[in-house]
Design brief:
By secondary structure, the chain is α+β, with helices and mostly antiparallel strands. It has 14 helices and 37 strands. 26% of the residues lie in helices and 29% in strands.
Length: 710
């Protein structure tokens, strides 16, 4: 059927169905081409991301894995029930520009960078020897698609870790490397349940060489451990069913080598083991897990009876969702008492749930098919798809006649030659394109987390500092809610210049928010020294600037690699000859370079930057800032350039997007652009006389290899 115009006497310029008399489906080449493109795209994505191919031809680790993206973090406390993450301990590591060190301390990148590819690390167990700590863990090999047992070493009580290599690699999956002492020897009992038994290995050259000592139990126990209690040895483990591990089994013996006797209460209701059991204040505790680590106090353990009760572990659950390294789940914890009496713990964590990769592929492909269906409808309405049947079938099939009438009515009411029809068609095309883009994003765009970037396989944190006052509360609430979810933000400091303080309960924040009330309303307050700031890096970010967390994380990485520089998101170029003029970013783009970054969005070393700004040399500049109520960021750029002899003093990072929320609230400080630029031009002239020029400090765009300064 096709469309032909009806006579003017009936429906004017409308359309009616024309019967071509054929008996088959006729497809327009345009629609056929579209279907072929979609088909090739879907098959290519399945080929590229299919589990059977993923990783076999690529030895690089940290690939998307359906089991997760696990990492390992470190915690400290006065007891096993008061553990806090390492970032709260304010431990600094100059070698990796981690000021302070932040979790996770061991990731797939840590292992892969040592030459051994890994997709994730989990199940950490600690072992102390010769004043050093060793951590044994499962490492998912992307080539064999199974777990190996890796080992790392720490010589600073767990603050930093050096990956040593693979301790155990078998033809089957290994995990849960439980390491313990017995009769002066070091043994490991990993989970090798997929091989159908429980094996004990002895260290021949600790920590990297192990020899099979004995198969101690012909039973595929999952996540098993051995403990000594009341002159007997006890194995706790679970049996893996096709669906889940729902019950514990307990076995006992007079020796770790057996023979083992099953407990009379088997199977015992209880969650899967979640780490090494521990003694505290004379009580024995078992760690377990579902999506989070749980702890159970063992009240009775004998050959005839067993009883445990759950107690509160006292660890706070992460509040940053996918942006937190352990935001979705954690299923393993190992506590260890240090020589100092403090307690150290290592725990694994993941930002997504099991099966996230498959879910994203299914949703993405479903959206692509939906977009194709919309295109099909468009082509059908335009007559590019013509499905016809024989006249006999038409006469016999009443459903077909109803369907033909429906198509006719749709085509009569959606005329592609009218403005309404064109609008509908254009809208459908736009919707299909948007749906297809979202579909490809689900497949290619990762798990949606704005993850931090490591430097030398280490992570750190920074403090976010904003200056505001009572008329901009709307901006502040949105600012705090958004940025407190960014992975590397440790604290938000609000420099309060005037007005009534808001109630902290009105701010939706996942990190501490601290108000610093100033006596005088001055832009110089932005850079006032603050001994309560716990991080070396401070991101000075205006309360009316909204960017995504990934932009902040990229800027933080560049700053950690260049902590002596200002690292910002808004470049400016000052060019001569005098009189100097302040110009917008397009001037810098036109001349392919910059020599300033605005500190309304810039990372600084707060000790260095604030000391420079409040030094005696900067006093004339600060006086002018107070005089014109402007130019504090310009002054900071001159001070950095003056302190950097002939080198680069600023770095630019291009944000993916940035929104000025003051445009919506009507409280912009610099509403009159021309007047604002005139004042800043005066500042350029005066600061040049006081601190030297910037015109010879030009830095070109696209200079760095990371491509973030385009």
């Amino acid at each position: 059927m096709g469309w032909i115009p009806m006579s003017d006497k009936t429906h004017g310029s409308r359309w009616r169905v024309h019967d071509n008399g054929g008996g088959a489906c006729t497809l327009h080449p345009l629609f056929v081409s579209f279907l072929l493109c979609i088909s090739f795209g879907v098959f290519y994505m399945f080929h590229l991301f299919g589990g059977s191919n993923l990783g076999y031809e690529n030895s690089v680790g940290c690939q998307d894995d359906n089991e997760g993206s696990w990492g390992i973090g470190v915690f400290y406390g006065d007891s096993p029930f008061s553990l806090k993450p390492i970032e709260d301990m304010n431990i600094w590591d100059n070698r990796s520009a981690a000021w302070p060190v932040a979790n996770p301390v061991l990731t797939c990148a840590s292992v892969t960078d040592s030459g051994i590819p890994s997709n994730f690390v989990l199940d950490p167990f600690l072992y102390a020897k010769d004043d050093m700590l060793y951590m044994f863990f499962e490492s998912k090999n992307p080539i064999t698609r199974q777990g190996d047992i890796g080992v790392a070493r720490s010589m600073d009580d767990g603050a930093t870790w050096e990956h040593l290599g693979v301790a155990l690699d078998k033809d089957w999956h290994l995990s849960h490397p439980y390491v313990f002492d017995y009769n002066g020897q070091i043994y490991m009992m990993p989970d090798g349940s997929r091989n159908g038994d429980l094996r004990l290995y002895r260290a021949t050259e600790f920590p990297l060489k192990w020899k099979l000592e004995k198969i101690i139990l012909d039973r595929p126990l999952v996540d098993a451990f051995i403990i000594q209690h009341e002159e007997k040895y006890w194995i706790f483990g679970s049996i893996q069913s096709r669906i889940t591990c729902q019950h514990l089994e307990i076995w006992y013996s007079n020796s770790p080598f057996g023979p083992w006797t099953a407990h009379r209460k088997n199977p015992i209701s209880g969650p899967l083991n979640g780490g090494r059991p521990f003694l505290y204040n004379g009580n024995l505790y078992r760690l377990a897990h579902d999506e989070r680590v749980r702890v159970f106090k063992i009240e009775v353990l004998s050959v005839n009876n067993y009883k445990e009760v759950e107690v509160n572990l006292g660890m706070k659950n992460p509040a940053k969702g996918k942006n937190a390294w352990n935001g979705a789940r954690s299923h393993h914890l190992n506590v260890h008492r240090l020589r100092t009496g403090k307690w150290l713990a290592v725990a694994d964590g993941d930002r997504t749930l099991y099966g996230d990769v498959t879910r994203r592929r299914i949703v993405g492909c479903g959206l692509i098919v939906t977009a194709g269906s919309i295109i099909y409808i468009i082509c059908w309405l335009l007559g590019f798809v013509k499905c016809l049947v024989t006249h006999n079938l038409k006469r016999k099939n009443g459903v077909y006649l109803v369907w033909e009438r429906l198509k006719l009515r749709l085509r009569l009411n959606i005329n592609p030659n009218t403005y309404t029809g064109k609008f509908i068609f254009a809208l459908l095309v736009m919707i299909s394109v948007m749906i297809m883009c979202v579909g490809f994003w689900y497949i290619y765009g990762g798990n949606g987390a704005d993850k931090p970037y490591s430097v030398n396989s280490r992570f750190s944190q920074f403090t976010l500092l904003a200056m505001t006052y009572d008329a901009r509360i709307w901006n502040l609430k949105m600012y705090v809610k958004h940025y407190s979810r960014c992975a590397s933000v440790r604290e938000i400091v609000v420099v309060w210049n005037k007005g009534k303080l808001p109630d902290l309960n009105d701010l939706d924040s996942t990190v501490p928010v601290r108000f610093r009330v100033e006596e005088q309303n001055s832009l110089n307050n932005r850079f006032r020294p603050d001994p309560l700031i716990k991080t070396k890096a401070v991101l000075e970010l205006d309360d009316d600037i909204m960017m995504n967390c990934d932009d902040l994380e990229r800027g933080f990485k560049i700053w950690r690699e260049n902590p002596q520089r200002l690292v910002g998101f808004y470049p400016r170029l000052v060019t001569g000859p005098p009189p100097l003029m302040y110009r917008p970013e397009k001037h810098a783009r036109k001349h392919n370079g910059y020599n300033m970054v605005l500190t309304g969005a810039a990372f600084v070393d707060h000790d260095v930057a604030f000391e420079r700004y409040w030094g005696k040399e900067a006093e004339p500049g600060r006086n002018m800032v107070d005089e014109v109520f402007n130019c504090e960021d310009v002054l900071m750029n001159f001070l950095y350039a003056n302190a950097t002899a002939g080198g680069v003093s600023v770095e630019y990072v291009k944000p993916a997007w940035a929104i000025d929320t003051s445009k919506f609230s009507g409280v912009a400080i610099s509403g009159n652009t021309q007047a604002h630029y005139r004042v800043r031009s005066q500042c350029l002239e005066k600061f040049s006389r006081l601190y030297g020029g910037l015109t010879d400090r030009k830095v070109e765009f696209r200079r760095r290899k990371d491509g973030w300064d385009l």
